[in-house]
């Protein structure tokens, strides 16, 4: 079993500052190149050679100005349910507040280790003030400054002391497993697919709690292939109202999507692709998720020679511009090609991890650029000198050139097509950046 630490505390005490500091290296890479600040609430930390999951529960509290008792209870409950240890963060500059006290009362009910972190202790004077927090009556107390980093080492030492080698290894391994989400409209056959998959072999290894209580991560070991399926069972129970069904199916899809590496979009062959499906699909592509489309209930379709080919063609045109994805015709009911769906999703996951050596990339792409130059803009002839893949989670490429702003969409499409022709990025959105040399 992996080891998970949750950070709780009222708004503005410095939870995300601490969280970001802890996950600094990984985050910096992702954000720097894509220019997207991701509001991550979950990550893997590494300290003293031990790995553990960190959840910043603060992100789950709606409206950070007025935090109501119920929201606080919810946050603490998530933390208690999902974590192996809790960091309870407070702020020395505001002293002990009523909210701090009510959180402490809630935390008293758990037998899991609670570490009180008194934050914003930036200097010696603050340390004197901070001693009032001893009155909270929590045994493990740490005076830290998330801003300067002082004291955070002791806190992390205390955490890593609780983690054995096995838990650390499991944490790393679980985080490296491919995560798939099965998404789609109500009644397309998602649960049938899941049940058909599980029926094939005794598969479930364990249920791992997700980053919110609304998603469940199930660890599968199907025919020697390990992966995690993300399910959103929690929401399903809460919302039985028929009117809300479609709305919640969208919310559910987005939640599952955020946590997944590859999304398996299930369609009903008879109904075809809906506008809602296209929206979900584009959103997944924008988020850089791998994609596979499964056309389910294929058993209900009257088939002639070219039925599948024509169906696929029509579907690809609806999914354009990004349609270099696997499309599979399946039947969950008759268990046709369902495991193929998993194999394909694993391939897409591999494609998403693909790193092209710079020399190979330049050899291929500079040739393609030579064969077809970017059009001259305002008398400027555009020269692309060098291409490199960026160290991001979603395959991203930086093209270094003299006039980056003058490269227009059609030429970008040409370059992307060339990349896709020479390297296998099937099912994976790729990003192209143009930078001044
Ligand atoms: P959260 O709402 O608990 O996640 O709090 P944030 O991490 O967003 O921090 C709230 C504010 O406190 C921000 O303006 C931070 O810059 C500031 N802050 C966080 N940690 C420290 C610290 O150690 N010292 C000082 N002086 N300010 C801090
Ligand atoms: P979900 O809402 O997406 O989870 O859909 P369900 O799995 O509950 O399936 C909705 C309905 O479609 C049920 O009546 C299933 O029996 C039916 N169904 C699911 N897969 C297939 C299939 O491959 N072929 C046929 N003919 N029916 C299916």
From TrEMBL:
Cited SUPFAM superfamilies: P-loop containing nucleoside triphosphate hydrolases
Where does the EngA-type G domain start and stop, copy by copy? 3-167, 178-353
Kindly list the biological process annotations in GO that this record carries.
ribosome biogenesis
UniProt keyword annotations, A-Z = GTP-binding, Nucleotide-binding, Repeat, Ribosome biogenesis
Any idea which positions bind GTP 1?
A: 9-16, 56-60, 119-122
GO terms assigned for molecular function? GTP binding; ribosome binding
Q: Which domain of life is it from?
A: Bacteria
Q: Quote the InterPro entries the UniProt record gives.
A: G_ENGA, GTP-bd, GTPase_Der, KH_dom-like, KH_dom-like_a/b, P-loop_NTPase, Small_GTP-bd
Signal peptide: which range, if any? none
Q: Where does GTP 2 bind?
A: 184-191, 231-235, 296-299
Function, as annotated, reads:
GTPase that plays an essential role in the late steps of ribosome biogenesis.
The entry describes its oligomerization and partners as:
Associates with the 50S ribosomal subunit.
- Sequence similarity: Belongs to the TRAFAC class TrmE-Era-EngA-EngB-Septin-like GTPase superfamily. EngA (Der) GTPase family.
What the entry lists under NCBIfam families is as follows:
GTPase_EngA, small_GTP
Q: What is this protein called?
A: GTPase Der
Q: Which organism is it from?
A: Filimonas effusa
Q: What is the lineage of its organism?
A: Bacteria, Pseudomonadati, Bacteroidota, Chitinophagia, Chitinophagales
Gene this chain is encoded by: der
